[in-house]
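hey so i finally got around to running the thing on that chain from the lab meeting. sorry it took forever, my laptop kept dying and i had to restart like 3 times. anyway pasting the input first so we r on the same page abt which one it is
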Amino acid sequence: MALELYNTLTRTKEKFFPLNPPKVSLYTCGPTVYNIPHIGNYRAYIFADILRRTLAYNHYEVMHVMNLTDVDDKTIRDSQAAKKSLKEFTELYTNEFFKDRDTLNIIPAVKYTKATDYISQMVALTETLLAKEYAYRGDDGSIYFNIKKDPSYGKLSNITIEKLEDNASGRIKKDEYDKENAQDFALWKMWDEADGDVFWETPLGKGRPGWHIECSAMSMTTLGETLDIHTGGMDNMFPHHENEIAQSECATGKPFSRFFLHNGLLLVDGKKMSKSLGNFYSLRDLIDKGYDPLAYRLWLLTSHYRTLTNFSLEALKGSETALKRLYREFLALDSQSTTGHINEAYKEKFLAFINDDLDTPRALTVMWDILKDTAVSDADKKATLLDFDKVLGLKLADQKEEPLSEEVKTLARRRKEARIKKDFKESDTLRKQIEELGYEVKDTEDGQEIHAIL
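ok and heres what got predicted. didnt touch it at all, straight out
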């Protein structure tokens, strides 16, 4: 069954086939490394991870590139405030991002591109746009893209320039701005005092790139002039992705990316995340509160990636309960003496859901259904769940039953003796003592079973 993905460019769900099968070129807008990302940022990276895993599950070879924005307005501003060089400052937060990536079991990109390593390519792309008269030098010496020269400008975000004529008549130098400010945007920013020691001497003059030209140059250099898939958050659609398309297609005359996929935004307690509102969470904040970071991953999978989601600690607690239950039931599967086989009927259901625009909520129902199915052997359940986890990324293969402590073994032995003597009051007392130590007791036909409460 073919993989279908919702393409923001066409506002329709389309069958996906790569330009050069079995290879897929995938570009993800990565972090601006000026601070520790918040949990909303990680929705975009977990979504991209599920996409990449799904492509691999469909036997594609994925060349996944993610950028690291290490020069822009924010990195310069905050590195100066910290009295650190731009390189020292951004490398600190790059490493912090990689730590969180691994904690969330996100597969590393095949290649991470730092903007500061691609300055020459950005200059060349800007020179091409100047030569084709899609760009011009402004009064301040900076170079701007003329959005009125691009007849298809706005096709991603459905902005009509004519309706924004008053706003579109000016220029904007800052990297990020609102939809209401659709204006000619900076490709190359001439140096000013606010930039301090951050600049490059190039044929364009002494300065630095604008944010939007960075991703175009990095993606096309590493993946070619036409990408298969470009991903990012809904908040990247305008201006960033719109501007990427305009400058790339005007320079090359070719489609920039065949598919654009955008994940929905994340609210916290019904509001936009903000430190001033006290609802701002990093992944470290959740870990410090005692939550398993993979519970956050599982919580995200219970909603479709394109939906607006509302995060709360109560919802995360429920997800962690479900994750512990999954681990507990997976570990309880008795398949040590048998090599299991993937159940093809369940795999077909799982694949149908995950190939339907990454429908992880319904894919998760298949996971729970097979666990309840008494007609499927434990060995086959285990093999099938491990196969599903290639997409879900919940680290089932890493789960191990902790050995019982001597204290628990002694209590278990005493409880067994109490049950033989039919001293059920003593048996119940011992059960409670075992549970207080973090273990679950089940009485079966073969005797009592004791497992750690995950």
